[in-house]
């Protein structure tokens, strides 16, 4: 955390903290307040953004899992066909 607070400010880091960070809500608030001087009057707005980014992150993980499963099934199917053709020839 100290590394982030002492580093140079950047818009990419700011957006990463808001939308991609796996840090807790409280850690995000602390970084944005201390490093970027952003004071939140409405806690609910920041919490909504963090919840939204967490939902996007989870959706991406689920999509990746689904794609991985489809790919694995395809590979398994192709391997099964390859092996069955090999046993027919014998």
Question: What would a concise description of this structure say?
Answer:
The protein is mainly α and 90 residues long.
Topology, please?
Layout: H1 2-6, H2 11-20, H3 25-34, H4 43-89
The fraction of residues assigned to DSSP E strands is under 5%
> How many DSSP H or I helices?
4
Q: Care to count the β-strands? A: 0
End-to-end distance: 63 Å
Q: Please, could you describe this protein's structure?
A:
The structure is a single chain. This protein has 90 residues and is mainly alpha-helical. The chain is 80% helix and 0% strand. It has 4 helices and no strands. The protein starts with a helix and ends with a helix. The model has no long low-confidence stretch (mean pLDDT 80).
Please describe the structure with a list of short key phrases separated by commas or semicolons.
90 residues, mainly alpha, 4 helices, single chain
